[in-house]
Amino acid sequence: MNKLLLLFPLVFIAPVQASEVTVGQVCKAASAAMFGRDHKIMQLDKVESDIAYVHYIRQNDGTRWAIKCKLIGDQVMWASDNPNSTGRWRDDPAVRHQKVVGP
């Protein structure tokens, strides 16, 4: 039986006007939108080599969640930046098609 599997990776692509806002502001706003959080809880840690480092504390359990963002043209690219799980840059296509062949 052939199955078609759609994978929707966590890719956030949004047009931005970089001349009007900083990479830190964009990263905070994108993080809030991606993770369904209030932008007011997003904290900018630093901006280094055009990469913004942002974190927030999850209210229900007090855990710290961190990401890093960079702007490529008018797109926001991000990666996890947690101490135990630094992640890859999420620059994959928004939708990928995979074919799974099995019984």
Automatic annotation (TrEMBL):
Signal peptide start-end: 1-18
Stretch list, region Disordered: 83-103
Top-level taxon: Bacteria
UniProt KW keywords: Signal
Name this polypeptide is given: Uncharacterized protein
